[in-house]
Amino acid sequence: MHFSAFRLQQAIRNREFTPFYQPIVCATGGEVVGCEMLARWLHPQKGLLSAGNFIPAIEATGLGGALLRGLADEVCGDGQDLARSAGRRLMMTLNLSLSLVMTPLFRPHLLALSIRLEQAGMTPVFEITEREDIRAFPQAAVFRQLAAGGLRFAVDDFGTGHAGPASTVA
Questions:
Q1: Is 137 helix (H, G, I), strand (E, B) or coil?
Q2: Is-contact 78 19, C-beta < 8 A?
Q3: How is residue 129 annotated by DSSP?
Q4: Average model confidence (pLDDT) across the chain
Q5: Is the model's pLDDT at 164 over the cut of 90?
Q6: So where are the chain's domains?
Q7: How far, in Å, CA of 82 to CA of 89, rounded?
Q8: 5-159 CATH fold
């Protein structure tokens, strides 16, 4: 599916994107320890669209930050409800592209979202997707700076993208 930058901006503005939550379950104890936030598009004509149908276009048009900012209030409110119903702090993971993390103007929004999620009773973990080659972004100092500000990072679906078998050298 192809979506123009205008249509994607319109969908963000109209709040057509919504968060869905996939539970993260402890393998040894079986208890829910958190959730992964997955953006979905409630498209007025096409129905519910999974991320694979729109994230490539969101990233290609540079709208990843706008999408995350558009979902932030709902995600923080949902996080507070989830932590309250669990009676304890839970982890919430959110996927980000590497280029978005490397965008200096987006970093304050990322820090603010992390603080809001912490205040809501969640432990945020930002998962870096493997759609981009990390070797193209050698600024490890950026991650150190953000980690010093309290942010936690992980690699989303490690081994399925640029760290996969086809990219490794024997």
A1: coil
A2: yes
A3: P
A4: 88
A5: no
A6: 5-159
A7: 9
A8: TIM Barrel (3.20.20)
